[in-house]
Amino acid sequence: MQPDKQNANLRIAALVSVGKHPGSGRARRAEQDARAVEMGLAMAPQGLEVLHAGDPHAEALRAYAGMGLKKLRILQQGENADAVPALSQYLSETKPDIVLTGVRAESGESSGMMAYLLGEKLGMPVVTRIAEIVSIDNGQANLLQALPRGQRRALRVPLPFVASVDMAAATPRQSAFGPASRAEMEAKAADVEVLDEVQASWSEAPARKRPKRLKVVKAKTAADRFKAATAKSSGDGGKVLRDKPASEMAQAVFDLLLEEGVIR
To answer: Where is the Electron transfer flavoprotein alpha/beta-subunit N-terminal domain (predicted)?
Structure first.
């Protein structure tokens, strides 16, 4: 975003969560939430407030502060508390012009419902999977919504609104250790704390790959039988031949050569 597109009077709230690395499982900044912070910094660096509901001692939150933030506000609540009531109560008091979230969290329920629930609570329109805020004029925002295969849809939305940020948005800047360690982590108890009874009853475990069903095909020609007999097994599926002597390699080769006219 160019400096002349920044709006000094714009107030943006970027909601962040603790992410989880898909390989190691370690806590980190969530990729989509970091893009939401980057979008807020590009549009209104002075009017951006980064907000988290949860544990104020989570070290992963420092990765957001390392993007150049002086302060990160945390609504302190328990691990099994629902974040929506606390966030909606706070946002209804502060009344930001734009609320940015990721499409879905990398841990917890990861339902992707945060933007919709907040929009319902706050009475704001919801725009999903935005890639860029192009400009803001006359109380309306010009947005680009990410579509499949790199396509974009131009939208015009009145302020205030809630938007989820897609992975197609600008790549977030690298987190620096110095600013991250110097940033103020301002924690306050959430005004509303509602226990998420459904989530509290869940138990989490690493997902296991399920075995895939083998395709059943009928070999009509000798070439098909030869191809099936010589095919290497792969993890993405396989084929089973029925009613044909596919297991007899010599017979398959002989039939193929006979069909191709190599032998007579």
So the answer is: 33-197
Mean residue pLDDT across the chain: 84
For residues 191 and 232, state if they share a domain: no
Say whether both 184 and 237 belong to one domain. no
Residues 6+ apart with CB under 8 A from 203: none
Identify whether residues 61 and 107 lie together within a single domain. yes
In Å, the largest CA–CA distance within the chain is: 89
Identify whether residues 73 and 115 lie together within a single domain: yes
Q: How far apart are CA 252 and CA 228, in angstroms?
A: 10
Can you give the residue range of the structural domain that contains 249?
A: 222-260
Q: Read off the pLDDT of residues 219-238 as tens digits, 9 standing for 90 and up.
A: 677 777 777 766 655 444 44
Looking at residue 237, what is its pLDDT? 44
Residue 229 CA to residue 119 CA, distance in Å, equals 57
Q: Are 101 and 208 spatial neighbours (Cβ–Cβ below 8 Å)?
A: no
Cα distances (Å, whole numbers) of residue 23 to 26, 97, 136, 137, 175: 8, 36, 39, 43, 20
Nearest to 37 by CA among 58, 61, 21: 61
pLDDT at position 1: 45
